[in-house]
Design a protein that fits this description.
Elements (H helix, E strand, L loop, with lengths): L1 H21 L44 H14 L9 H16 L3 H11 L16 H4 L3 H10 L7 H13 L14 H9 L12 H16 L2 H18 L17 H17 L7 H18 L19 H17 L4 H16 L11 E2 L8 H5 L3 E2 L3 H15 L4
Antiparallel strand pairs: 1-2
Helix pairs in contact: 2-3, 2-16, 3-4, 3-6, 3-16, 6-7, 6-9, 7-9, 9-10, 9-11, 10-12, 11-12, 11-13, 13-14, 13-16
Amino acid sequence: MRFRFTALLFAATMLVITLQAQAPSAPPAQPGPAAPTPPRRVPEPPYKETIPPSPGDLTVWPRGDSPQEVGKALAEHFVTGTQSERFSGYPYVCTFYGAMSFAALTHDDSLRDRLIAKFDPMLPGGTARTPQRHHVDDSIFGVMPLEIAIQTKGLPTYDQKYLQLGLYWADRQWGPLAPDSPAELPQDLHDALVKDGLSPETRLWVDDMYMLTMLQLEAYRATGDRKYLDRDAHEMVTYLDRLQQPNGLFFHAPDVKYFWGRGDGWFAAGMTEMLRTLPADHPDRPRIMAGYQQMMAALLKYQGADGMWRELIDRPEAWPESSSSAMFSFALITGVKHGWLAAATYAPAARRSWIAVAGYVDQNHDVTQVCTGTGKLDNMQYYLDRRRETGNLHGQAPVLWAATALLRDQP
């Protein structure tokens, strides 16, 4: 039986071999395109730490921190995202101005034109809501059409309507208050300030030195008419005399004696913008420069080891706040680059501040840890407890300003 099984297995094996030998061979391969080879993944080179040429270098940045990259991300986020879909008051204006400035410095005509298209529904007769009050927080609206007029002058797309609208707001700011816009100061003080040539929108809040002065400054930049510059400088000197303290910082208001971060940031940014434009021979320039330099010296003392400033500048227990830190970064960078501040002393602080602020921009290009909108109140805990927000335009705007400061006036 075992012999029979072995014989059958041998016969089957021989049959398979014979059939394989008789099978026709496969035809030779014809010439043609080779099958695609999967692309070979090239590994990223290992990250190399960026070493600046000096501790105060303002041109070489760690990966992801360059002003071109950060500024472009924030500007595009504003113009293409939901942030620009609805006019939201002065933080919108400040962000629009920052994005337009970035577009001009980087020669990004597409960004500029898309920003203008966002503004056009706010023209008279348009479909978008626009401000109405005779108030610093509303009048700054005029900065947007004035910046459009400045940037499009000489282009085929230039339209006089932007200039006319912006100048309407600038001149209205020095006109009499409307009956439904009562002064925020006691009537006798208000009347005395107006008699001295100040705007009836004057309220002696530290915030005003950006809200109020930027509109007049843009009107001067658009027209060259000295009256706008003289108004501006006189207003700023008055606020310097009334609000700046011996330590160089500013109370939120005469009756609120706290050094609120973003409030001081508004003043720092306003002085910086003013000094960028104020002629060297203007009689108010020395006073404004002295106030600016005194403030910058104070900020140097209060900058944290992390490069940031606190919600209340002089209170180490307060939390690091991004919008004020970005405003101070803008002021320091501009001062160093223009030679108003000694580079050896201030440039390292300016560099640390920018890197710190850039670190508060998240993966969605939103600025984090921004103090919510804040009125004045004579209570320290009120400031310490302010809500922290992400994507609030109060923070988006000054990061754009700081980016433009780094890009401006480079060789």
